[in-house]
Amino acid sequence: MLQRRYELAIVLPVYNHHRTVGQVICGLIEEFPNHLLIVVNDGSTDGTAAAIETVHKSHPSARIQVHTHKVNRGKGSALMTGFRAADQAGCTHAITIDADGQHDLNDAARLIAVASLFPDELIIGDRQIDRHPTPKNSRRGRDMSRFWLWLQTGMDVPDPQCGLRVYPLAQVLTVRCFTRRYDFETEIVARLAWKGLRLISAPITCIYFSPEKRVTHFRPFIDTTRGTWINVVLTTLRILSIPPGRTRPSCEYEPIPLLRSLRDRRQWRKILNLDGCMPLESSLVAAAVGIGVLIAFIPVYGLQTILAIYIARRLHLNLPLMVLSTQISIPPLSIGIILVSLICGHLMIHGTWPPISLSALRQHSMWYWLAAFTGDLLLGGVVCGLIAGTISLLSTRLLLRMCRGVNIGNTGSSTIACIDLQTHLKEE
After folding, report:
1. Which of 372, 380, 374 is nearest to 345 (CA)?
2. What's the CA gap between 190 and 3, in Å, rounded?
3. Could you count the other beta carbons within 10 Å of the beta carbon of residue 33?
4. pTM of the entire structure?
5. Are 367 and 375 contacting, i.e. CB atoms less than 8 angstroms apart?
6. Based on the number of CB atoms within 10 Å of its own CB, is 307 exposed (0-12), middle (13-18) or buried (19 or more)?
7. 327 DSSP 8-state letter
8. Domain boundaries for CATH 3.90.550.10 within the chain
9. What is the CB-side half-sphere exposure of residue 84 using CA atoms within 13 A?
């Protein structure tokens, strides 16, 4: 079989890491003497530039390129500068490593080996957070990123926030991203999956320094807001098919069994995905219920089921459960939903109670009221739907947690990478 050229560069984005960057660079030179090391100083204002220069001069024979941004542009911009430099140097892949010293170089070697088996895919480290004591914020952020990425791609990636990754440059340099800071790493993963790349995880060491030794420039409020914004944008693009995006989901829906077999309780549990078949099961079941209830409140009568089917397929959610949740809009509950939505919308727009009375209701048909208060009904339906959907989502999530007695989304974190590697080796 013809072997493809595989040339890898190491990209090290740096911003105010004067205490750790020298040690990290020396370790990379010693561990990977044959790989090009690209250091991108992203507008550091401390002694980082001097530390980089000192190490560079002390290793004159090492393959090092240093690129400097005059002002801080963000981690995404630093990575793109490194990717372009690696491409110009004739490299086909780039492994990204953080400069804070929290990545084990043995793990980097492991990811490079995995990338050689899967040269056309994106390789992401899995820090095995569930097996080690880690900060709650890190665990919560990992779970949320994992949930959003499933909606956007249908792929269950155990640790989407890990910065230790191997990128195929031919694919990365053709992707256009909105973001250039920490949220770049969120966006690039989804967009590469939309291009048809698989997201392959490989287990790595989980390293967390004590607060006094940790070097981080993550701003909780600003960067979390940016991350949430880009996830909402990506999910909306996925629903609207802009761009269409072709992904290779890590699981597919199975055909619904024949009607005579639906009497079996096990079949219903299988249809509704309640048997713990995947790590994100509880969160996704709750999301399907919540979005289904939201759709039930939106006044697109006659199209709600079609809308539920479309969104369930686009966001890789449980289709039968979402359609079932929209059925709260059938009579007689639909009358109450319409009245509540109409009252809410009229109060928000006009600030007064809508002119509805028993005598007025008898004089006109329901279609008259729908036509006369379309704007009120639409706004009220969306607002009430968001409230009811959120309550349904949280209630379902809590109920599932109580029934199972386990932490949601914290199981099976390293199985995907192992399955992919074993399958590939068997095919070879």
Report:
1. 380
2. 28
3. 12
4. 0.81
5. no
6. middle
7. G
8. 8-247+415-427
9. 8
Q: How many CB atoms lie within 10 A of CB 191?
A: 23
Give the contacts of 415 (CB within 8 A, at least 6 positions apart). Answer: none
Q: Can you tell me the distance from the alpha carbon of 247 to that of 192, in angstroms, rounded to the nearest whole number?
A: 9
Number of separate helices (H) and strands (E) present in the chain: 17, 7
Number of Cβ atoms within 10 Å of the Cβ of 117: 14
* Residue 125 Cα distances to 119, 162, 165, angstroms: 15, 6, 6
168, β-bridge pairs: 93
> Helix 319-326 and helix 304-314: axis angle, to 10°?
150
DSSP characters over 94-160:
EEE--TTS-S-HHHHHHHHHHHHH-TTSEEEEE--GGGS---HHHHHHHHHHHHHHHHHHS---S-T
CA-CA distance, 422 to 141, in Å (whole number)? Answer: 29
**Are 78 and 40 in contact, with CB atoms under 8 Å apart?**
yes
Q: Tell me how crowded residue 1 is: count the other CB atoms within 10 A of its CB.
A: 4
CA angle, residues 380, 382, 388, in degrees to nearest 5:
95
Q: Which CA distances in Å does 270 have to 62, 312, 323, 416?
A: 57, 17, 16, 21
At which residue do the structure tokens 């000192």 appear? 54
pLDDT in tens, the chain (428 residues): 334 578 999 999 999 988 889 999 999 999 999 999 999 999 999 899 999 999 999 988 889 999 999 999 999 999 999 999 999 999 999 999 988 888 888 899 999 999 999 999 999 999 877 666 666 777 788 888 999 999 999 888 988 988 899 999 999 999 999 999 889 999 999 999 999 999 999 988 866 555 555 556 566 678 778 888 999 999 999 999 877 666 655 444 445 555 555 556 665 555 555 554 444 678 888 999 999 999 999 988 889 999 999 999 999 898 888 999 999 988 888 888 988 998 899 899 988 888 776 676 677 676 776 677 888 889 999 999 999 999 999 999 888 877 765 443 443 443 344 334 444 444 44
Q: 16 Cβ partners below 8 Å, 6+ apart?
A: 44, 45, 46, 48, 215, 217
CATH fold for the domain made of 8-247+415-427: Spore Coat Polysaccharide Biosynthesis Protein SpsA; Chain A (3.90.550)
Residue 113's CB is within 10 A of a number of other CB atoms, namely: 12
